[in-house]
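Hi F.,

I've been meaning to write this up properly since the lab meeting, where we talked about keeping a consistent format for the predictions we share between groups. The idea is simple: the sequence comes first, exactly as it goes in, then the structure tokens exactly as they come out, then a line or two of notes. No screenshots and no reformatting. I'm using this chain as the first example so we have something concrete to point to.
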Amino acid sequence: MKTYRQLFAIREFRVLFLVQCINIGSYAVASLALGTITFAATGSPVLTALAMFGAPLMRIVGQTLFGSGSDLVRPRTALVLVFTTTMVTDLLQALPGLGWGWRFALLAVGPLITSALGGSMMALVSDILPPDGFILGRATMNIAVGGMQIVGYGVGGLLLITFTTTELFLGSAGALLVAVALLRLGLSDHPPRHAGASLVRRTREVNRSLLGSRVIRPLYLTMWVPNGLIVGCEALFVPFAGERAGYLFAVTAAGMLLGDVVVGRFLAVAVRDRLIGPLRLLLAVPYLAFFAVPSLPWAAALAFVASVGYSASLPLQERLVTHTDERARGQVFGLQGTGLMVGQALGALLGGAVASALGLGPTAAAHAMGVMAVASVVVSIALTPGLRRSRPGVDVLESAPV
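Output, unedited:
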């Protein structure tokens, strides 16, 4: 499978792609609304970062206890539960005058459910596509993420000029209702990937196997830590650019989209695997220029170029599929997604903390971005030896237990 025509000829993939577009667009709008409320009320970079990126910290709890749910629950049922939960929390966030304690509690609910069931989407993609179509399908799903982040943050920024944050939350919930209907009507009722096991025990066993593997652990860490540190840079866009931050979020999504298109569609397997190292460094190096406090146009250009580096996750996930058992694929991707989101949340909080330590204002935010970029480069270099164990041609194969 080499073309988008072949890919979108598969009906269920079309449904999943459209649902992912709706999901990411609605999340971007709701996240921007909550970040705007938080920064206007507190002026705190840390709380703003927590509001926009901190909720996935709850995924640690869910992944630790219930991560095998992605393999033990029917995929369609799992995805409907995830999207319905997010829709309900958006509706509750729309309540005027809702207390901050309740807002942050609601932030935790969606990620908790997603950590247990969210791996079902990528596992289902791997099921409905032939083996040679997985990376193209994964890259195309990433395109949905990048494209709809552009739309979501760009449109969200424009909507904030005319509409209230309450109306943005209601719009997000309405979009998710459409996504739930598409999932229910457009997907077949696939059986669970595994049955007859204790949810908590299996979750613990598979997580232990994955994280204890000398082959798989470096793959996870490479997808989690350097990326999370760069999200720490992105979490400072609001303190850096104020009301114009939506444009920075949009261009970073555009850069990620470009990288996924080029790497996932046009590069051969061997070429994209060799580019893992350069792309990981590209993700961080442009942000070193923020030590000079660039103007908004230069900042946008730098962020755009850096975000192309996110496409390193595609060949890394290709290695992940090679070295894991397909019957644990839901938990494999659930753990990958959980670690990614937790890394982003911790990176966002760390970025906010660094900016607060350096002082308030755009200059402190820019310098904090530079510090986070240095940390990302150092971590990427440190993880390079571990990645050699999963290179194509290396005679090592480890699988998650089933």
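Notes:
The chain has a mean pLDDT of 84.
The CA atoms of residues 261 and 274 lie 17 Å apart.

If this format works for you, I'll send the rest the same way.

G.
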